[in-house]
Amino acid sequence: MAETDAAPGTGRLPGPREAPAEVTAGAADGAALTPLQLMRRLASGPRGLTEAEADTRLARDGENTVPAWYTPTWPRRFLRSLRDPFTAVLLCLGLVSAAVASWGTACVITVLVGVSCVLRSSGEAHAGRAMAALREMVATTATVQRRPDDDAAPRAREIPVEELVVGDVVRLGPGDLVPADLRLLRASGLTVHQATLTGESTPVAKYAVDDPPDVGDADPPHLCFQGSSVASGSGTGLVVATGADTRFAAAYRALGRRRAETAFDRSVHGIAWTLIRFMLLTPPLVLMANAAVRGRGLETLPFAVAVAVGLTPEMLPVVVTATLARGAARLAATGGVIVKRLPALHDLGAMQVLCLDKTGTLTQDRPVVERSVDARGRPDPGVLRWAAVGSFWTLELAELPAPDTLDEAVLAAADEAGADPLAHDGVAALPFDPVRRLAAAVVRRPGALGVHTLVVKGAAEDVLARCARARSDGADTALDDAERARLLDTVARETDEGLRLLAVAVADRPARTGEYRECDLRGLTLLGFVALRDALAPTAADALGVLARRGVRVKILTGDHPGTAARACRDLGLDPGEVLTAGALAQLDGPALAAAVDGATVVARCAPADKARIVAALRGAGQVTGFLGDGVNDVPALHAADVGITPRGAVTVAREGADVVLAEKDLTAIGRAVAAGRYSSGSLAAYLRITLSSNLGNVLAMLGAGLLLSFLPMLPAQVLVQNLCFDAAQLAFALDRPGDGVLRGPAALRPRAFLRFITVFGLINAAADVATFAALAVALHTAGAGGEEVFHAAWFTENLFTQALVMLLLRAGHLTVRGRPGPVPCAAAALAVIGLLLPLSPLGPALGLAAPPPLYYALLAAVLALYGTALAAARRRYLPGTR
Ligand SMILES: Nc1ncnc2c1ncn2[C@@H]1O[C@H](COP(=O)(O)OP(=O)(O)OP(=O)(O)O)[C@@H](O)[C@H]1O
């Protein structure tokens, strides 16, 4: 039998050993086959592939790379940097210059564009490599069933998702990412989120079928697609497409992946777009003003273009990428925090509200059973025994890749008490689901022929709502509303002690062969409660203290009982205030929901969608919101937040969806991450403040001088060379570290506040320029010298000096690093030296510059002293306490 070769690197379904070469298919092509036909076609079986066969297929088909991980090639990266809006505007200005045959301006603009694109794409390549290395530390794995050789029994083991091949048998559990396109062979209560593919926000049920229904290409229930994630239940599936052949890859290629706008987009992009509008307006304004006042025509165009270029912070993308990449690398090395998406570092610094789940974040998620009691509150080991039967068979029949900690705790306690869940036979299971908040197993009791017993355990409210009776001392009594309320009060009292309570109920049903569903879980008999204690995380209290000092408000959004959550808060020194429940907020949305949770610290009994709704409402109300969680129930909220944070041990889908991964499950790492974010944002803010205010000042002065003088205040080439010097100096901000003042509060870069700031400082800068003109007039008059070249040189020198002063005075923090001058003071000094020497050097005449008289330098020193004093005063008013 000849084996069909698939195209290398595609991961397409290989043809069947006995099938002709053209029988290759993606997930949908095999959808109409029965599982057996499909397995035969894929030369696989229910026991999975052998390791050797899997290696052969991997070498032939290539890796199963998820589209989001593709690294762009150099040319693609370069082209992408050309698409940057600043670059696009510069290119347009270059074209305009070329059209009016202003070749000098066009050449300088081309150099500017080339340099910024090379710097940006190499910066991105560097950041991309660093990010890939960081991502590797949190590599995504899949549980695959393979055999060492043909005769050996299959073994389940974790492998990197990239190593999956067509024909592999994969196990899925809650929180797993579907690692490739799969055909389900078995499933138990399986539901998947496939919003990335279909946009549907609620989980969709998936199950195995022998005879596939004819649903066309829509959404076959027996296929799970890469990019979706398991919301609840478990399953086993056969890989039918990997890598570029998955449906996700096709959708990704067609649409690209768009994420909701985050705080970074709102601030940095907001500022960038405002500037671009200014830049586009500048040339026509200059032309019109010169035509109206001086009667000049199109000959002013190169000057107008140069003024617009002068306003452009071309290095913005380069400085942003380099600053964030440096901050992220340092945070990974020293803070144990991996930033997977660079802008998330800015968002960490800007975070105003951090929403947390409770279990595993404030607590250790190592619950221990403290007692088990009957419905009357009397000790009853029988309740624990039934809970253990439920836990054992749910885990066993659902083939969950990772057991639940509550189930493990119940099994450990029952084992210690000598209970044996294996005395019962398991029939079916409905695994735990954070929306239902309960789990169920169906078992056969020893000696009870023709009877199936349903064992249900879960949150007290949800189990009690399904109970018709309560058992005490072997006798069943009807459960009315008053008794239910009494039981819930008892539960609330127990949770006040910090305990987590699981209600346990059973029901006998006539044995049947059909599937069990959620609707079967009614008319149960409550047996009692198992109380568990989950110790607090040792570092949580300190970490919450640090966050409070840094001005980050913390909110707990938990699936747990309000009492347990409130007690945990109190024990950690956090005032829980009025504890809300998600049920009470169900009718609220948007601003009303944000207002309701604004004053609260705890919202309990949250389903996954509630957590996401609350996070989205806070964001919608203008709060930069982070979310930290590690469970399946946290995934929608991780996506909804400006910055999603998860510990490294979190379920796969949480780790994959998060922007920031904590190497250890330690809340103190958040404090370090927030600090790193604020240092990076501080550097960016300083860069923007300085660049934009001096650019604006120069442009205003140039416009005014252009109208007052009979000649151009600066030649286009001079404007551009000066701009090149500024750009090079400003790269120093990527290496800078601002002072600790930035740690005091959230550091969002708000476009409006920025524009106000740069207008004030731009005007001060323009005033310094006007003072320089006056000084120059005095100097020239005294020296009896004159000429355009001298004017240009004098202004060139002044501009570089004022820029150097602004860099020193509008930046926060120490000027030295370990006793040596920091990068920004060095760059400022270099600017001053160039400003002083270039007009005097042989390059001066080539650029149309001639040395000003010595008196000018003395007067310039006085202007600079006044300028420095004005800057320092304005700084005290607009940047209080930043030193
Ligand atoms: N394996 C399980 N079997 C039965 N019931 C469970 C199981 N795990 C959790 N529960 C119940 O469901 C409730 C909600 O669980 P969920 O996992 O949504 O949140 P949580 O772990 O309590 O809190 P957090 O949202 O802070 O992580 C729990 O308080 C518990 O009562």
Automatic annotation (TrEMBL):
Looking at the record, the residues that make up the Cation-transporting P-type ATPase N-terminal domain are 29-102
State its Enzyme Commission number(s).
7.2.2.14
Is DNA repair tagged as a keyword? Answer: no
Signal peptide interval: none
Record carries keyword Transmembrane helix? yes
Where it sits in the cell: the answer is: Cell inner membrane
Q: Which SUPFAM superfamilies match?
A: Calcium ATPase, transduction domain A, Calcium ATPase, transmembrane domain M, HAD-like
Task: Give me the ranges of the annotated region Disordered.
Answer: 1-20
Query: In terms of one coarse class, where is the protein primarily found?
Result: membrane
Q: Which reaction does it catalyse?
A: ATP + H2O = ADP + phosphate + H(+); Mg(2+)(out) + ATP + H2O = Mg(2+)(in) + ADP + phosphate + H(+)
Keywords, alphabetical: ATP-binding, Cell inner membrane, Cell membrane, Magnesium, Membrane, Nucleotide-binding, Phosphoprotein, Translocase, Transmembrane, Transmembrane helix
Q: Where are the transmembrane segments?
A: 696-715, 753-778, 790-810, 822-843, 855-874
Instruction: Give the record's membrane topology.
Output: Multi-pass membrane protein
Main function: Mediates magnesium influx to the cytosol.
Family listed: Belongs to the cation transport ATPase (P-type) (TC 3.A.3) family. Type IIIB subfamily.
Query: What's the protein name?
Result: Magnesium-transporting ATPase, P-type 1
Native species? Streptomyces ramulosus
